[in-house]
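Why predict the complex rather than its parts? Because the way molecules touch one another can change local conformation, and only a joint prediction can capture that. The input here totals 1164 residues.
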Amino acid sequence: MNHTEVLTRYVTNFVDELVVNGLTDAVISPGSRSTPLALTLAEHKEIKDWVIIDERSAAFFALGLAKKTKRPVVLVCTSGTATANYYPAIVEAYHSRVPLIVLTADRPHELRGIGAPQAIDQIKMYGDFVKWFHEMALPEAGTAMLHYVRNKAASAYHIAKEGNQGVVHLNFPFREPLMVDFSLNDVWEINDISCTSPILPTFEGKKHLSKQQVEEILRQLAGKQRGVIVCGPQTDLHFPVAVTKLAEKWGLPILADPLSQVRSGAHVSDVIIEGYDALLRNKTIREKLKPDFIIRFGAMPVSKAYSFYVKQHQDALQMVVENDEGFREPTNNPTTFIFAEPTTYCEALADAGTETTSKEWLQLWKQFNDIAKMHLNDQSDIEIREGEAIRAVMDSTPNQSTIFVGNSMAIRDLDSFFWKTDKQIEVLANRGANGIDGVVSSGLGACAAGVRVTLVLGDLSFFHDMNGLHAAMHYQLPLTILLINNNGGGIFSFLSQADDKKHFEALFGTPLHIDFKYVVHMYGGYYVHAKTEVDVKQKLIESYNREGLSVIEVKTNRDMNANWHKTKWQAIEQEILEERNR
Amino acid sequence: MNHTEVLTRYVTNFVDELVVNGLTDAVISPGSRSTPLALTLAEHKEIKDWVIIDERSAAFFALGLAKKTKRPVVLVCTSGTATANYYPAIVEAYHSRVPLIVLTADRPHELRGIGAPQAIDQIKMYGDFVKWFHEMALPEAGTAMLHYVRNKAASAYHIAKEGNQGVVHLNFPFREPLMVDFSLNDVWEINDISCTSPILPTFEGKKHLSKQQVEEILRQLAGKQRGVIVCGPQTDLHFPVAVTKLAEKWGLPILADPLSQVRSGAHVSDVIIEGYDALLRNKTIREKLKPDFIIRFGAMPVSKAYSFYVKQHQDALQMVVENDEGFREPTNNPTTFIFAEPTTYCEALADAGTETTSKEWLQLWKQFNDIAKMHLNDQSDIEIREGEAIRAVMDSTPNQSTIFVGNSMAIRDLDSFFWKTDKQIEVLANRGANGIDGVVSSGLGACAAGVRVTLVLGDLSFFHDMNGLHAAMHYQLPLTILLINNNGGGIFSFLSQADDKKHFEALFGTPLHIDFKYVVHMYGGYYVHAKTEVDVKQKLIESYNREGLSVIEVKTNRDMNANWHKTKWQAIEQEILEERNR
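Output of the joint prediction:
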């Protein structure tokens, strides 16, 4: 068998096995060394291939696509610094538990460490941010080799998607010539086995607690009246129903993070408290809401005020439920960890227990929540702020829609102004490591799953990944961007750095002074500057009927936003504390 | 001592020690956790701080600045994925041996591995691409701690710049509050020692061969008539004079890479052969130029044809001279490695030896070189191609100037059309790992050394780092960009991938279809589309008298360029082979 045939059979069997296991999408960046993989992924009729030139954007695009579809997505790039551009998205995927299969092409061993062009040490180059690394063997003739590559493809797919989902990295040494030949006989097959079912079929269990374990948990909770259910980021769309039923049965408030998927959907009920970030800013109010126990599902919510609440109540019994593994409790409070599939666990608790809590407790949370929402919703006719912009999105977005939200201020604004609704809205964000990088591409990746996405983000985050917009043009992806432009880093106005008048604007405020209209037009997008809440709503609704990219820009003021929040928080505190003193 | 005072003294002493050791520039990306470092670098009167928002661009900017100044540059960013954005430039700095000091801010130990926001595992996160990693201690009170931070700063500076220059990475755990206070007494000082001289003064030797070693080398070369000196990328500006003297004395041709700094300057002589890439494409010509020995300084030249020449002549005695360490010989031919400072080594050889080689040998190279240049220089009045564009740059660029050149086609075009000149032109490129990423920022980083730079690059490379242009606007840096836009990846038209009609344009050609005028205008730059060689020259000269950013775009055709090169290579072969047969 000649070199081309050996190479072709090696790569086609590898790629085909990914497909047999469920792969549907691959994101490819151009390069020479990766030619065998790129051509084969493009050629396979079951794979949709996305070509994205900037590897950093490509990786975040794959991340968004995998996040939306909840299935592994393949990434392919050539050797050299191309591979290093994947690193930010790999770090994010590790922390937000998103399945990616990274395939890097490499020089063969004889061209490593000797100054050959574009040859860097790619072995374990992503360190502990990948679940599994494997250096692939050089292609060789024979059935054993084809079994080997199919085994590795199947393992890679499985490892990426099971347990805590994450990234696997396979490094492929390829010798020249790099062309493959699909005209060979049975090129997608191994002669003696069928390739229509996986080579390693799996039955994978989920973690369920035993009856005895559930009883022990109920015993620990017995007699504790003031409980709080907290929902961090979740992706299982069955979870909101199960956790709401549990809370209703037990009479507990649910503090629901904007990424919990609990704030929206047909299940929505008045046990869901979404104004807690504003409430928990005040120490006295935190004391009035002192809990006996906390059951948290998933990572900590975005709200910093909530973390103050937890820190203030170290004596509360805290239980954290994790799907698979991980000790995510950033206050270092004593905490019981429950490793179990959350939806089933909620159902088990609701079935087993007959927890009776005081009605006043839930009533208190509801009452305070109403006060917070009333103040935050208070209309005024001065110029538009972050709050109005977010409200416009939540009002305009149709049922069955997807919102992707940027980090830093955008997600905090969404946390403050995303009121519960019976519309079904999936809200996604890169909330593993909370970077402002790659957000445009992640939003577009979610679009690539075949849905319209509304992406809400700030100007620094938009700037960081403007290269991502090329995919919107190239693939005519249906993305609406609400660009909240406060000309710089708005979050710093809330921090003590804001007091340093000498260096603040240069080091933290960092205004870009960019007119983003140019870049939107460069990528053939529709651009409009909206000045009022009504205007934003109208432009959003129009965009939902338009093909391709629409960018609606809202210009706000950093200081004014910080002051407005502080004023509102004070008003909420005042009303609650005065009322309680009456 | 309170927290703020402890933190302040820790950071100011660290930063001050960097300055005492020679630090002049720091590139800072905005963030909260890095506040103590950012404020102190901005406050120190001896440091010029550059604030760049996109960390990927920031790192390549620092790389360009360090490459031009040949001194370490500091990078500072916050925790999380920000740090991962440095990775591509760190990989490049490792391979191209550029000194960088990377300072990442981190959460303190009690906030690691527990799901705290923006906390990722930053320990050794750049793997083997850094020369040294150190996890800094948490700030504590006392003189011992200040001695410690000064020691670490001094070591970092030294390690980055000595031997094979490269990257050092220090990770700083900082607890809140993060503000520092420069109003404290003697905040830049340790009470009992002077801080105006380094805490660890060093005397660092260079590698010099002994007289006996030089004699042994001469003995090995004795009797070999047909020798070639090859100069890969070099940064020492004394080297070109020394190597040219040696070649002249020994009657040897110098095959000089465009990054060797040997093709331009007052030393330029007719022993310098710059047309070898075109010559060595033909096997018969390579045979006619069969060498007895090769002495190469530094890494392999960019020319692929040259690597064919080396592979074809495995029996030639090859000696590779490395400044410090590294086995860079990508053909795997038997090779003698000489670890010695190249300039001194050239002088030692010239002083010691009285090598006499045949005059015909050098004459042959000169004659062939003239033929190659004549064909490549052949004027024609059809539309502008890469060659004319590069020629326009070389003609227009003034004496004492700096050119930064992109990878992929741009450097190959420069290799083909950069004729030796007595103008002093420093040519720089990211030639460690040959990425197309970060090139705009690296060019701007070179500008930040206080010189005008002409950056020559293709459209994909320009696209990859358009974010870098923000620094051009923000700091009004004097950058002239010659953008050679062939709407895609021109280099692939030279490879076998070009034969795959089905997938070529989508996977390899990858046309961007972008009108770059928009982005140049967005960043306040001057933009012009130049259509002829004369026009390019004129626009270049105009740009050299303009402040800030100028972009001169030349639109070329990928296929036409590949065909033109092939035609020229054929014509050169034909003339040489026919002439020799006469």
